[in-house]
Write a structure and sequence with these properties.
This protein is α/β, with parallel strands linked by helices. The chain folds into 2 domains: 123 residues, Rossmann fold (3-Layer(aba) Sandwich); 172 residues, NAD(P)-binding Rossmann-like Domain (Rossmann fold), CATH 3.40.50.720. The protein contains 11 helices and 12 strands. The strands form 2 sheets. The chain has a 7-stranded parallel beta sheet with strand order 8-7-6-9-10-11-12, with helices on both faces. Strands 2-1-3-4-5 form a 5-stranded parallel beta sheet. Helix 1 packs parallel to helix 11.
């Protein structure tokens, strides 16, 4: 029997019409038993029993994976980024790769704004102090008074820009791959953005070219009160360099939703001027439902195009 693998840590199969259609066509669904990001060996094990389709999370989909999954025809990424997929290897193995770039955009953008506001108004430390019977009168900062520098003006970056403008913040951006920008957003070179912005927010894919985009050298060019937000990909930030920069007080705070190794257990946990979340950017109920249905529909249409379904 042909099988489909869903490798995301969670997935609502019962309320997903495209998946129900696939089940009625006799396909068996195998889910992620570990309920977390899979390793290369773990995804190989799930795909080994003749899987023809995969709804993918962020596990590594490499040449080795494709070599072992010789029945795999369609990968439908539940999310926007494809940096975990070896696209050249997929093409060489005649595997179609699809994604859902629009579905998670609003959820990630809203989380980004939430992280900005929490750091600017010092919500977390004030909450902890009140719970310890203190009554701090800590002065925060207005988002309206900040210059927000957005690196990457794709589906998510544009939404973050629009939301920041609703708060009356000034928005500058860097993206070498776009020509048209949203109204009142100014494109600037990366070096200028890093030196000028009060808040730096990352919204670009991870690749060899963007690995540690914010490294020790880049972090030294930021303002002393700058805030770094990363709700994109962990490898974009050199976490060790960020920790050193925060400890030395060379920037004021950081918020990370993605990490180079997940689950994250590193030393940033002990750093008081950070907010660390568990890769929850897309995990808003409404966006997640839309993303899962879109991923399943992409998989269904992809299998139809291969001739495996009618």
């Amino acid at each position: 029997m042909n099988t489909l693998v869903i490798s995301t840590s969670s997935f609502d199969i019962d309320n997903n019409p495209p998946l129900q259609h696939l089940l009625k066509n006799g396909l068996k669904i195998i889910t992620n038993p570990h309920r977390r990001k899979l390793t290369e060996d773990e995804i190989i094990a799930l795909l080994k029993d003749g899987a023809v389709g995969l709804i993918a999370g962020i596990e590594p989909l490499t040449e080795r994976v494709f070599e072992s999954a010789n029945h795999l025809k369609v990968i439908s990424r539940c999310g926007t980024g494809l940096d975990s997929v070896d696209l050249v290897a997929a093409k060489n193995h005649d595997i179609t790769v699809l994604n859902t770039p629009e579905a998670p955009a609003q959820a990630v953008a809203e989380l980004t704004i939430g992280l900005m506001l929490a750091l600017l108004r010092q919500i977390n430390p004030i909450d902890q102090a009140v719970r310890s019977s203190e009554w701090p009168r800590m002065q925060g900062r207005l988002l309206a008074a900040q210059t927000v520098g957005i690196i990457g003006l794709g589906h998510i970056g544009r939404r973050v820009a629009r939301l920041c403008q609703a708060f009356e913040a000034t928005v500058i951006a860097h993206d070498p791959y776009v020509n048209e920008v949203p109204t009142d957003v100014t494109l600037v070179p990366l070096e200028s953005l890093l030196a000028t912005a009060d808040i730096i927010s990352l919204h670009l894919p991870y690749s060899a070219n963007t690995h540690h985009l914010l490294n020790a050298k880049a972090l030294t060019t930021l303002k002393p009160e700058a805030i770094v937000i990363n709700a994109a990909r962990g490898g974009l930030v050199d976490e060790d360099a960020l920790l050193d920069t925060l400890k030395l007080g060379k920037i004021s705070a950081a918020a990370l939703d993605t990490f180079e190794q997940e689950p994250y257990h590193g030393p940033l946990i002990e750093c008081g001027n950070t907010i660390l979340t568990s890769h929850i950017g897309s995990l808003a109920r409404e966006s997640r439902q839309r993303m899962e249905i879109e991923a399943a529909e992409n998989l269904l249409q992809g299998l139809i195009k291969t001739g495996l379904l009618k």
